[in-house]
Amino acid sequence: MASSDARKVSELLDDLANRPGPRVSLAEIVAVLGDRAFGVLMLMLALPNAVGIGGIPGVSTVFGVPQIFVAGQMMAGLRRPWLPRWLLAKSIARADFRRVVERARPRLTSFERRLRPRMAWLVSARAERLLGIVFLLQAFIVSMPIPLGNQPPAIAMALIAIGVIERDGRCVLIGLLASVLATAIAFAVVSLGAAAVWYAVTHVFG
């Protein structure tokens, strides 16, 4: 996870948000990351839903679909993420991206001050491949039309990603626990919805 750019993630986000131009593309985000690996990219992709503004038009496409690509590559053990050109060309208004950064910055900078390398076994290369499975599951949940279902898995992914970036296994562990909770919430919502539909079919229209 070494990088030639020693800036913190919050500083990278500020740089992207305040650049000139009406839109920010996924290609621009990846270029700014340089040789930063999966953790930073997954964090950036999770932030819009994590801060609760994933409903902005275009945001779910620009930031949601790549999560599945990146998670799959983590599982495969790739050293750096790769995205196809058509996906790199996706963009959103820079003003919307700036809103994401402004809402995320206070908590992100607070996390950055508290994190430190620990519990290395949870941020090893082998562990990152397993974390890719967790990312993939949470990314699928985010992509599903579940009422209030986007934010919990996005928060879980953001916590895991921050832990990977800062080599803080405890943060990763917290993120894993959050992913279990997010999965349980999604399952409960889907189960209740299915039960309601079944009740309507059998008792109202039956």
Low-confidence stretches: none
- Estimate nothing, just give the exact number of structural domains: 1
Number of helices: 9
Mean pLDDT: 81
Rounded to the nearest angstrom, the radius of gyration is: 18 Å
Count the strands?
Answer: 2
Helix content estimate: 55-70%
**Strand order, biggest sheet?**
1-2
User: Order of SSEs, N→C?
Assistant: HEHHHHEHHHH
User: Into which percentage range does the β-strand content fall?
Assistant: under 5%
Structural class: mainly alpha
Shape: globular
Q: How far is it from the N-terminal to the C-terminal residue, by CA?
A: 59 Å
What about the largest sheet?
Answer: 2 strands, antiparallel
General description of the model:
- The chain has nine helices and two strands.
- It is mainly alpha-helical and 206 residues long.
- The protein has one domain (9-204).
- The longest helix is centred in the C-terminal third of the chain and has 36 residues, at 169-204.
- It is globular.
Core attributes:
single chain, 206 residues, mainly alpha, two-stranded antiparallel ribbon, 2 strands
Fold blueprint:
Blueprint: H1 9-17, E1 23-25, H2 26-33, H3 38-50, H4 59-76, H5 85-88, E2 91-93, H6 94-114, H7 125-143, H8 151-166, H9 169-204
Antiparallel strand pairs: 1-2
Helix pairs in contact: 1-6, 3-4, 3-8, 4-7, 7-8, 7-9, 8-9
